[in-house]
Amino acid sequence: MQLFKLSATRYSESPEGQDAYIFGIFSDTGVTTDFKTAHPNLSQQIALAMENGEFKAKLNQTLVLYTANCDTAKRYIAVGLGESDKYTSDFLRQVSATAAKKVLDLKLKSFAIQFMGEELLATEDAQVLAEGLVMGSYQFLNYKKSDDEYAGIEDVIVLSNADTSAALNYGMQVAAGIVLARDLGNHPSNIATPTYLADTAEAIAKSGGMNITIYDREDFEKLGFGGIQGVSQGSDVPPKFIILEYMGGGKDAKTLGLVGKGLTFDAGGISIKPSAGMDEMKFDMLGGAAVLGIMSVVAEVKPKLNVIAVVPSTENMLGGEAYKPGDILTAYNGKTIEILNTDAEGRLILADGLSYITDKYELDGLVDFATLTGAVVVALGHRYSGIMTNDQDFADELIEIGKQTQDRVWQMPLDDEYAEDIKSKIADIKNTGAGRTAGTIAAGAFLREFVAEGVPWCHVDIAGSGWLKKGRPYHPEGPTGAGVRLIMELIRSWE
């Protein structure tokens, strides 16, 4: 997706010749006095629509209006903001996304938009407005032919009497990372292979002055990456173990570690998945996509801290050399794993990623992202990510940031007794828990075994939040980019 040009100006310098002018209306206060003075005819139209119940200014409701002989815009679009005393920055993100979607529906190229709710929100919330505009206008049309010459939104002007330029620019940078994560998830698995992820990482490293190391199949045995080596055996598609190092803070700055599951297609291996819905298994790399999206933003904003990212990436297929139930694999940290289900493969490649990053780097915090368990969808649906931790202070920090950004996480318990569920009689641990109970927590208990002692760590399961079957205001159907806003705000708080 090509991002549009976004700029800011003051109301006194209102642009002319726009395809649309977008403004907000609260359901309880109606059209502002200033708008009534400047646009008496439009105000009368809005009043009539509200009196007749056709427009109630409910949150995300829209009304398109036309007026003759207007230099500012060819049409005006009112967006409902809901009740003024309930308005939040996330509602600003939503209504901005709604506005962008309406513009796409009308096939418009340019528009001016008020900083809706400005009197109730801080100027920093312009970041949220920019995020909403980009996230709401997201389209993935790479493989769809069309005779339509409309190429999408090209220019957007934000009107405000405050200086919003810096916040708008940062919002665009964060949103670009979300777009990258969504695009990676949307590409089919015959395109978004582990090599494709590695190439994307190389481009990010080049643009951000990062170090990059990519290990291939022939390196795995030598390095002791028994988890990804085992999972990748059944696929002819070359696996990759990707490491990005951003050292923007120097040796005395905080260092954040990120690990993302990069399972580019998951057939379940020998424990094959049902055919219904298997096409969705191209989304099993959304943890890796989130990490690459985050690193693409890091490359642009260049924060004053260090970020190490690891993305183990492979397919999980059923070839003649595929690993089997009953096999025993040895992860990077030397722990042995009894395989009882080859469809519990994500935790195996993450085992190598977590143990490697905590062995090679001194980290002040470590977060891994993975579409790991269907059980988290049962527990939390598609609105929250599940989070588990070995450090409550670190988890509390992410939970609070999740509330701020609405990239939300909900904590699951990870008491020591859950480790009983993954004990094996013939190996150190097994890759499944106690049947169908506490599946998400069992996966978290498994991953904890591969985090070095003393490293604050949070596991974030995005199996529900990472992709949607039904879209919402700033999330389309499919990949959402979950995790990008969460970690970028964590990074900003750590600088």
Strand tally is 20
Described by the principal axes of the CA atoms, the overall outline is: elongated
Name given to the CATH architecture of the largest domain: 3-Layer(aba) Sandwich
CATH topology-level fold name of the largest domain: Aminopeptidase
> What's the name of the CATH homologous superfamily of the largest domain?
Zn peptidases
Largest sheet properties: 9 strands, mixed
Using only C-alpha atoms, the radius of gyration works out to 24 Å
Distance between the termini: 30 Å
Number of domains: 2
> Averaging pLDDT over every residue, what do you get?
96
Give the amount of beta strand, in percent. 15-25%
Helix content: 25-40%
* DSSP helical segment count: 14
CATH class of the largest domain: Alpha Beta
Instruction: Find the structural class using helix and strand composition.
Output: alpha/beta
Unreliable sequence segments: none
